[in-house]
Write a sequence for this structure.
């Protein structure tokens, strides 16, 4: 737990430095607890900010964008044991970030900061961002049986815009077909959403699982609804025999009359 | 400290419950959710010195606590990834002689246009709502296709009050009442409204209309009819 202290501080300092210079949009900063079985309390300037922060819980820090967290401390929940001495931490004023407390590849608690891709997604597609934040070797991520992301290692990420659909996803060691260490699980990649999937936990500790978060509203609508390519004046009734032009035209006129609403 | 901790944890839990009720795939948390969200805003907006009454120690709540909010669990929820909701398979609109016309799911063409089936079917845009769900459920059919009348040949005759019936692949049906009709120049089609994913359920029926441009083989306008669910 002690090592978590230094890494947490380092990661947050990186976050502070990474603040976009040109950002005018409001910040979105989420903090995710990705270490199984380690509830904590978070203090700033000797005052509690939130308590009993558990595995899987998420805190929205967006409103603190641009503020400096003075003397950040993370304590084991319900105790005065300081697990993390964060020092003074300046949060970026803008941008879209996810901060996850997770295990590194060797199983040591750490903090990883990810800048989220919020670029526009084409109509009919969704974005899948996969992040290896588990105490496990490099893996391949398979979607519907085919390798979608290969040789992903902690603390890296990979991403792709995919046709919006539900995929059966499984995680296997790089280059192998088995053992399946996570999944198979259905993953719905929705139109216009960015689905972020974190592999978390420990292979050795048998706590491997996934956490997810979704960024919505990145999609686009179709550009046009082309629901007619011939003029109705020459439209044949569906029963018309092609080629009998005159008869068809007369039939069309009759068809129109019959089909129109009577009121 | 313990009592403060317990109180804050409870407040956080209540807030979490209130927030989680906003998740689309989660059932509303019930009547206790809204009051919980209200009450939790009270202590955090007061000063940290006055928030302490239950505490017997000197521990204080950070003023930052008012600006930080739990947003539920990031745990993988299979229900959010299941894909077994009934989808539309037929449509009937008595007033324009549309009787159990087939509905097929469609997506997007490479050029960005909404995909449409041939003359004899209606396309349901699979990336928006299922009819009856929150947001706009978009169904489009041709007015005329390759010289043949399309299913929505007479959509422009639909009037407010007309009933649209959707059949689903589980055998169920849903009724909708037309509440608004409009004709838009295609350059001014309100795409953000038509393809809105949020808000109250609305069935959005679209076809073409207005002048036909022979060189472009395209109409100048779109007819749109908006219908809302009729309470069963």
């Amino acid at each position: 737990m002690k090592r978590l202290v230094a890494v947490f501080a380092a990661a947050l300092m990186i976050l502070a430095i990474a603040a976009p210079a040109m950002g005018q949009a409001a910040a979105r900063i989420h903090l995710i607890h990705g270490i199984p079985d380690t509830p904590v309390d978070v203090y700033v300037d000797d005052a509690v900010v939130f308590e009993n922060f558990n595995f899987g819980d998420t805190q929205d820090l967006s409103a603190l964008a641009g503020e400096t967290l003075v003397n950040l401390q993370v304590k084991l929940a319900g105790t005065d044991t300081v697990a993390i001495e964060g020092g003074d931490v300046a949060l970026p004023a803008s941008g879209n970030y996810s901060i996850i407390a997770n295990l590194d590849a060797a199983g040591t608690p750490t903090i990883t900061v990810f800048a989220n891709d919020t670029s526009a997604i084409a109509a009919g597609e969704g974005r899948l961002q996969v992040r290896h934040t588990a105490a496990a070797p490099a893996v391949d991520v398979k979607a519907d049986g085919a390798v979608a992301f290969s040789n992903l290692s902690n603390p890296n990420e990979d991403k792709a815009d995919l046709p919006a659909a539900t995929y059966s996803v499984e995680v296997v060691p790089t280059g192998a077909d088995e053992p399946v260490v996570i999944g198979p699980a259905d993953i719905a990649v929705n139109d216009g959403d960015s689905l972020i999937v974190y592999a978390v936990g420990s292979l050795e500790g048998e706590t491997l699982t996934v956490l997810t978060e979704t960024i919505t509203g990145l999609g686009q609508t179709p550009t046009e609804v082309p629901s007619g390519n011939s003029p109705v004046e020459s439209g044949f009734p569906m029963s018309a025999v092609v080629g009998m032009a005159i008869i068809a035209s007369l039939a069309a006129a009759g068809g129109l009359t019959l089909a129109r609403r009577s009121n | 400290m313990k009592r403060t901790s317990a109180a804050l944890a409870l407040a956080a839990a209540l807030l979490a419950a209130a927030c989680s009720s906003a998740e689309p795939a989660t059932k509303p948390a019930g009547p206790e959710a809204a009051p919980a969200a209200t009450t939790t805003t009270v202590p955090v907006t007061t000063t940290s010195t006055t928030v302490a009454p239950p505490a017997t120690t000197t521990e204080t709540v950070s003023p930052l606590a008012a600006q930080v909010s739990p947003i539920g669990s990031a745990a993988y929820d299979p229900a959010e990834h299941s894909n077994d909701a009934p989808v539309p398979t037929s449509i009937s609109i008595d007033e324009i002689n549309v009787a159990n016309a087939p509905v097929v799911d469609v997506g997007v063409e490479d050029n960005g246009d909404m995909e449409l089936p041939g003359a004899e079917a209606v396309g349901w845009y699979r990336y928006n709502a299922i009819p009856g769900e929150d947001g706009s459920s978009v169904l489009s059919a041709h007015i005329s296709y390759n010289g043949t009348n399309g299913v929505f040949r007479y959509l422009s005759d639909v009037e407010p009050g007309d009933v649209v019936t959707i059949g689903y692949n589980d055998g169920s049906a849903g009724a909708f009442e037309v509440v608004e009709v409009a004709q838009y120049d295609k350059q001014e089609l309100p795409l953000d409204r038509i393809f809105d994913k949020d808000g109250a359920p609305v069935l959005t029926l679209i076809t073409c209309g207005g002048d036909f441009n022979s060189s472009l083989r395209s109409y100048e306008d779109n007819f749109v009819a908006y219908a809302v669910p009729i309470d069963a």
Remarks:
- Chain B has a mean pLDDT of 81.
- The longest helix of chain B spans residues 2-20.
